[in-house]
Design goal:
The complex is a heterodimer of chains A (365) and B (223). Chain A has 365 residues and is of the alpha+beta class. Chain A has nine helices and 23 strands. Chain A is globular. Chain B is 79% helix and 0% strand. In chain B, α10 runs antiparallel to α11. In chain B, 37% of the residues are buried. The chains are: A alpha+beta (365), B mainly alpha (223).
Chain lengths: 365, 223
């Protein structure tokens, strides 16, 4: 399948209005990101055909779910869920409690939507489930349950992948363990993939396209690079606020085991040898690790100092800190500093500034 | 046990088996519908299904007798189609038993059906499972406890019915004469020895069946 598109304009009995137009293309991870209650999960359920009854709104067709070769939902069409071929990973994985791990996988394999090359052995090996295969579901940990859910979707031959907060019920170590699997799953399956989350780290790690949702509407949408460093996406993230930047490898320093990256003509250093990564490297720069200075301070232990120009200053008078967006070439980084510092340095848009970056994290590992 | 007792046992076994099979086929969907529907008509259907629990069997028997008589439209229709009168026949007993045992089958099943999470059925649907497949692959295995209880109660309750049989079945050996009626006849004619055999047998059977029900309940509780 090449794409799935969801045009939705409905009002739920509770009065909640959902009005979005989402396009998810093959080969990309499309993230629906926003606070809980913004309508993310409702969109996935409507795409899967799990919720019906909203086909009209004020006499107009209210839901149009289409793919490149089929109409799934329209005012006079409703393909039942089991014929759509959606691979759905839920927050509570919804494994069948009366079946073992193997039983759950065989359930999916026997009902697969299209022929698949992959077999149970390959899947369990990839996900490290070999030793769990005969266990009942009740004996699995949260991380194991979610891995079985991923295996189930993979064996099922889905034509489009939908994930609704798949890491939401997991603790941090389990989350870190599962996240790379989801990224690899996307590489294994060349199909449209919609990922719903309210965790900004997951979204910037995984997504190629981001839809920022609020109260049932799309506030902003764009690529992760375009949107990842925006004030809108980060303003309510507190310490999790971070810019996402695109760099390329320029050099490796064997003596210090440090790789030099090219970021808009300036240097950013990251630990280790990163020369194996040929294409663009996705780098995450946490806003709280970026401090600002009016002059270049070269006598500092801080390795990465980038000069740029202040683009936007976002201040909320109820908060101590401000979020500053700094333009560097064609890209942006974010800095979270106190409002006191903003006034103290008398920061203004268009001002030249030096950003001292304490730490950077690579996302595309 | 006399030959007549054996015949009564055979009639009873047939009646309870046929009644239970009919209930499995017709009342399972009813129990599922009651467990899931939000339709307002549910508030009428639920008490209707439960009525046989509180009604004296003779009341139900009385109305069924009227319905089965050839002078009623239903009884007339039956006569036209089968060429037999419905009242005081084995089919009459079956119809009466199905109605009388309905709540004992529906209620335990409805409870377990209500506990089947919709989210599991949603997950199954996304995996390519249609309505019927979901019923057999997910709902039935998750509800097996309820099925055992419902089937045992419906069977045992049919074996034990008396009043309604007396009203609509009469006492025709080999046709409508069931164990409970036979027991009554023995007592009336002061054949206490034979009455003891039947009463003791029914007591043991009921006890064993309920032991099975509770055992299954406990065993599958922590699933």
């Amino acid at each position: 399948m090449k794409y799935v598109r969801a045009k939705i304009n409905i009002e739920q009995p509770s009065g909640f209005r959902l009005n979005v137009d989402i396009l998810a293309k093959q080969g990309e991870i499309t993230a629906l990101y926003g606070p809980s209650g913004s309508g993310k999960s409702s969109i996935l359920r409507l795409i899967a055909g799990l919720d019906g009854g909203y086909e009209q709104h004020n006499g107009q067709p209210a839901i149009e779910i289409t793919t490149d070769n089929q109409v799934w939902t329209s005012s006079n069409e409703h393909i039942p869920t089991h014929l759509r071929g959606v691979g759905f990973v839920f927050q509570q994985a919804q494994l069948f409690p009366h079946l073992s791990v193997r039983g759950n996988l065989e359930f999916a394999l026997r009902r697969k939507h299209q022929p698949t090359e992959i077999n149970i052995q390959q899947v369990t090996q990839w996900l490290g489930l070999d030793n769990l295969i005969n266990k009942p579901i009740s004996q699995l940990s949260g991380g194991e349950i979610q891995r079985v859910a991923i295996a189930r979707v993979l064996l099922n031959g889905a034509r489009v992948l939908l994930m609704d907060e798949p890491l939401g019920a997991l603790d941090l170590p389990a989350r870190k363990q599962i996240l790379p699997y989801i990224d690899q799953l996307h590489q294994k399956l060349d199909i449209p993939f919609i990922y719903v989350s309210h965790a900004i780290e997951e979204v910037t790690y995984l997504a190629d396209q981001i839809y920022l949702l609020k109260a049932g509407a799309v506030v902003k949408s764009g690529t992760t690079f375009a949107l990842g460093s925006s004030i809108e996406l980060n303003q309510s993230e507190g310490d999790a606020a971070a810019a996402v930047i695109k760099c390329s490898v320029s050099d490796f320093d064997n003596q210090y085991n440090i790789t030099k990256l090219n970021f808009e003509g300036q240097d950013i250093f990251v630990s280790g040898d990163r020369r194996a990564q040929q294409s663009d490297i996705k780098v995450r720069v946490p806003a709280r690790d970026v401090s600002l200075a009016l002059v270049a301070n070269t006598k500092s232990s801080i390795l990465n100092i980038i000069h740029g120009e202040i683009d936007q200053i976002h201040q909320d008078l109820n908060e101590t800190s401000a979020l500053i967006r700094i333009k560097v070439g064609a890209q942006y980084i974010l800095s979270r500093i106190t409002r006191r510092s903003v006034d103290h340095l008398n920061l203004k848009p268009q001002q030249k500034i030096f950003a001292q970056i304490k730490s950077v994290g690579l996302l595309s590992e | 046990m006399s030959a007549g007792d054996w015949t009564a046992l055979w009639v009873t076994a047939q009646l309870a088996t046929i009644t239970t099979v009919i209930l499995i086929i017709t009342a399972t969907p009813l129990a599922w519908w009651l467990a899931r529907t939000t339709h307002p008509i549910r508030t009428l259907v639920e008490p209707l299904v439960a009525l046989p629990i509180v009604l004296p069997p003779t009341v139900l028997g009385f109305y069924l007798l009227l319905a089965f008589s050839p002078s009623s439209p239903f009884g007339q229709l039956w006569l036209n189609i089968t060429d037999h009168t419905l009242a005081f026949s084995f089919p009459a007993l079956v119809i009466g038993s199905v109605i009388y045992s309905l709540p004992f089958y529906v209620q335990p099943l409805q409870v377990v059906f209500e506990n089947v999470e919709q989210s599991l059925l949603d997950a199954a649907a996304t995996l390519g499972s249609n309505n019927l497949d979901r019923f057999f692959a997910i709902i039935i295995p998750l509800s097996r406890r309820g099925f055992v209880v419902a089937i045992c109660l419906a069977f045992a309750h049919t074996v034990g019915e008396f009043g309604i049989v007396l009203m609509i079945g009469g006492n025709i050996p080999g046709e409508t004469r069931v164990l409970s009626i036979t027991l009554f006849d023995h007592v009336e004619s002061l054949q206490y020895g034979q009455a003891h055999i039947l009463a003791g047998g029914l007591l043991t059977f009921s006890f064993l069946l309920l032991t099975l029900v509770y055992g299954v309940n406990r065993k599958w509780q922590n699933r």
